Task: structure prediction
Amino acid sequence: MRRFISFLLFVILINNCHTHKQNFQIEQPKPFVFHYPEKKITYRLPLDTGVVFDFITFAAVGDVMFGNHTINYIKKHGTIYPFAYTQKILKQAHVAFANLEGPFTETGTRFDKRFNFKVPPKYAIGLAEAGFDVVTLANNHMLDYGIEGLGNTIKTLDSIGVAHCGAGLDLEQARKPAVIEKKGHRIAVLGYSMTFPQEFWVTDSTGGTCYPSLKYMKKSILECDSLYDFTVVTFHWGSELKNYPKQYQKDYAHQAIDCGADLVIGHHPHVLQGLEIYKNRLIAYSLGNFAFSSYSNRATESIILKTYLTDSGLLFAKVIPISVNNSEVVFQPKPLTEAAADTILAHLRKFSEPLNSKFVIDESGCLWGDWVIF
Result:
């Protein structure tokens, strides 16, 4: 029986990973037909691979901020405009996640800094239409328009049914995980920001984004690990436009997994950083930009990371290369194929090599967990 299960997994993985198709999914097998003994009755039972290998799929993308230049296109084409080419991929996952890099608000006091973002709340519905289940608010733009802007964002997300984590109007709310139930499993998502301005960080007396104090971060992850089936930890960290993580990023990511995190996702650099497999858990140090309203010619490559998680850790993950070069895609991230996709995969392998003791990303963009097939 064990050899049969291993063989079945092998067939599933080979059929789905060794391909350049962007719409990556495990197809439902045809029903198994058998005849009941002694009676001329035929029964059909679905052969459900989810029973053999119980997993959930978690799709993660980079920074989302569709204000500024994108607004005119949304006014003309509708709120799904930024996600027109990626909606199908996101909706195929059990859980889809993004970093919301700016508040949904029309009001609030502008914080004195170089870049301030905000998006009219009426356009937030695009997140739900695109298939996003949860976003992190833990970043260096969520309080660009103060506590009022944060409060408006929370109200808006609640009204459209998109879960959120990483920031709150008080310390308890900021530290609270977002919990999503899919496929009979409960997935907890914790969000942390390690970026300035420090005035944005939540305190005992003020709302804001959640800084990962090691004591409370460990406590939160341990609690989530004991209460929920899967725990995802997200960090806003690192240096902008740098492709390699700093030592503190690696330290915090490893600490999170040591405490029970099943997946670690990073944002802030606006460019890709490497992927690491640590204790059969996946760390993505930076996913770069996604639907981000900027014409930067230094932040043009990104990915959708679709991860298959089991109780034993990483089953496998699929990297889907996308272009976020807005001079070409005009604020609509687009999946890439052939040479363009291979270029991004080659860059990601280069960034990932110093983080791993072995080759982790194959030619089709798959990463494999520590499963022994035979």
Observations:
- The chain has two domains: 2-45, 57-368.
- The chain has eleven helices and 19 strands.
- Residues 28 and 49 are 8 Å apart (CA to CA).
- The mean pLDDT is 88.
